[in-house]
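Example 9 (inverse folding). The structure is encoded as follows.
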């Protein structure tokens, strides 16, 4: 085989070797451009340079917002908070300092996101350290569940967040105070879906009915057995006075008199002072 043929068969590293300096040169040129933009912002307050920097580093803000996204927190809200953090970082960065902008921007943006979770999203006020631990625990639960393919134990969560188990339990409990649900919130997508209040409780009048039955039982001891039977047939069985008269063998007028006398005795007993019945029981 000729030397020319062997040269054709041997892979050449020249393109890769040539690409590396080109990439490095592009990075250096990008750094110089960014440095010039920051100097224009710091020195002249150049609005166009500021907008260019914000647009250039917006992917960084978006990636940090995605890192803290939760099912209960809209992504649009987090993106807005992260963008505000990026703007603060652009306005506060000093290009004379020998550090990369990302090293300054990341803590600034994360600070805004954490402040948003701490001050704007909790329905019930929780101590700051417990809020931050709750967010770390929530993030660790998601990561461990994806890694272990099951829900992690308290011990595993405690190891992941470097906290003791008691504090993890407190953080999990505090997570319930993150967002409150309205009692009027529907529990389904249907237009006439029941609300949360419908599933939690309702007006219970059983206690009132029980009290009325106990009071009535004591009051009925104030009338005779015959009067009790007439009242039962009239008001419980809804019989007419004529029907009651046929059953007990008296006229309708006598039934009416029995009912009036019995009710009068009950009214007197009800009106007795200090809750005591004014009349003695009648056999």
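The amino acid assigned to each position is listed next.
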């Amino acid at each position: 085989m000729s030397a020319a043929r062997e040269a054709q068969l041997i892979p050449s590293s020249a393109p890769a070797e040539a690409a590396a300096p080109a990439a490095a040169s592009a990075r250096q040129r990008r750094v110089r451009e960014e440095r010039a933009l920051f100097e224009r912002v710091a020195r002249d307050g150049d609005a166009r340079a500021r907008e260019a920097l914000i647009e250039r580093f917006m992917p960084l803000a978006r990636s940090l917002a995605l890192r803290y996204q939760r099912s209960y927190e809209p992504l649009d809200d987090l993106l807005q908070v992260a963008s505000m953090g990026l703007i603060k970082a652009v306005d506060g960065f000093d290009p004379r300092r020998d550090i990369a902008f990302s090293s300054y921007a990341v803590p600034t943006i994360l600070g805004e996101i954490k402040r948003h979770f701490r001050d704007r999203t909790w329905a019930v006020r929780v101590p700051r350290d417990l809020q931050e631990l709750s967010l770390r625990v929530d993030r660790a639960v998601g990561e461990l569940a994806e890694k272990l393919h099951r829900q992690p134990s308290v011990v595993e969560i405690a190891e992941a967040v470097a906290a003791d188990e008691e504090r993890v339990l407190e953080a999990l409990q505090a997570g319930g105070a993150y967002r409150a649900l309205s009692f009027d919130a529907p529990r389904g997508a249907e237009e006439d879906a029941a609300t949360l209040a419908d599933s939690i409780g309702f007006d219970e009048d059983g206690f009132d009915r029980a009290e009325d039955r106990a009071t009535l039982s004591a009051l009925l001891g104030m009338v005779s057995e015959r009067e009790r039977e007439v009242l039962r047939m009239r008001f419980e069985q809804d019989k007419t006075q004529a029907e009651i008269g046929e059953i007990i063998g008296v006229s309708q007028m006598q039934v009416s008199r029995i009912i009036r006398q019995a009710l009068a005795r009950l009214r007197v007993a009800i009106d007795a002072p200090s809750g005591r019945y004014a009349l003695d029981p009648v056999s």
